[in-house]
Write a structure and sequence with these properties.
The protein is mostly beta strands and 117 residues long. It contains one helix and eleven strands. The chain has one helix at residues 26-29; strands at residues 5-7, 10-13, 18-23, 34-39, 46-51, 58-60, 68-73, 78-83, 92-100, 103-105, 111-116. Strands 2, 4, 5, 6, 9, 10 and 11 form a seven-stranded mixed beta sheet that branches. A four-stranded antiparallel beta sheet has the order 1-3-8-7, with no helix packed on it. The longest helix has 4 residues, at 26-29. The radius of gyration is 13 Å and the shape is globular.
Length: 117
């Protein structure tokens, strides 16, 4: 079964940048739109943004619009989340998933992003 693996998280000061990566199998990247999500303790997981299979269409949560950019390279089976002007409220575990019909599936283990003030 396919699986996704996130990487690139870490500790950064407010105003800084990070780029997360999500790597998976060709079975996943060859077929599905993808998304980035985040979760903090005690809160539900929220959508950060989504990208179409071809990478031509993206949508973002209002809280990250203008600061975060999602891209994908299907030849490398990799999706990226470029995060600029990070804020302390962006602190969370970030996950990627594939949009399989109405469900998000093939969740990775997540990568921690911590933004200090």
């Amino acid at each position: 079964q396919g699986q996704l693996v996130e990487s690139g998280g870490g500790l950064v000061q407010a105003g800084g940048s990070l780029r997360l990566s999500c790597v998976g199998s060709g079975d996943i990247f060859g077929h599905y739109p993808m998304g980035w999500f985040r979760q903090t303790p005690g809160k539900e997981r929220e959508v950060v943004g989504r990208i179409s299979w071809a990478g031509t269409d993206t949508k973002y949560a209002d809280s990250v619009k203008g600061r975060f950019t999602i891209s994908r390279d299907n030849d490398k089976n990799t999706m990226y989340l470029q995060m600029n002007n990070l804020k302390p409220e962006d602190t969370a575990v970030y996950y990627c998933a594939a949009q399989v019909g109405p469900k998000d599936e093939y969740w990775g283990q997540g990568t921690q992003v911590t933004v200090s003030s």
